[in-house]
Amino acid sequence: MDSEIDFSSLGVSGALSQMYRQDAQGFLPLIAVFLEGALPAETRVERAGGLFRKNKPVTRVTSTIGESVYVIEDNRGTLATRREKIVRGIRLKSEELPIHQWLTALSEDVAGRAVSDEAAMAAMRRLLE
After folding, report:
1. What's the pLDDT tens digit per position in 89-103?
2. Which domain holds residue 60?
3. Are 69 and 63 in contact (CB under 8 A)?
4. Confidence of residue 85 (pLDDT cuts 50, 70, 90)
5. What would the DSSP string read from start to end of the chain?
6. How many domains are there within the chain?
7. How confident is the model at residue 9 (pLDDT cuts 50, 70, 90)?
8. Distance CA 8, CA 104 (A)
């Protein structure tokens, strides 16, 4: 049965890490597409640019999964990542994480969500193909 697939054992973290290693500069728009596909209601993508600018690059992606908020943003050409814990609207903790730890934590939470969410499951399958 599809709902019993253990995405974490299939290497979601590894797949995301591979995407990052292959194109660190282009990773932010890739993770934006992945998270928007997996968790459209929980993901917010911010873009730079004004009204008349054709190319609006992704500057920040924020995804809320349960009590965890994952943020990845362009910090003058490098990626900054952090995870926040928010309970009943109150931020209890905010920690900057190295990209590999951030990807591992994010992939575990997304994989956990994929068990009960069809869109998240489909996005995970596309990532692993």
Report:
1. 889 999 999 988 998
2. 2-128
3. yes
4. very high
5. -GGG--GGGGTHHHHHHHHHHH-STTHHHHHHHHHHHH-TTTEEEEE---TT-S---EEEEEEEETTEEEEEEEETTEEEEEEEEEETTEEEEEEE--HHHHHHHHHHHHHHHHTT-HHHHHHHHHHH-
6. 1
7. very low
8. 9
Tell me which residue has tokens 């190319």. Answer: 55
Burial of 54 (0-12, 13-18, 19+ CB in 10 A): exposed
pLDDT tens digits along 38-76 = 888 899 999 987 677 777 889 999 999 989 999 999 988
Q: Which amino acid is at 1?
A: M
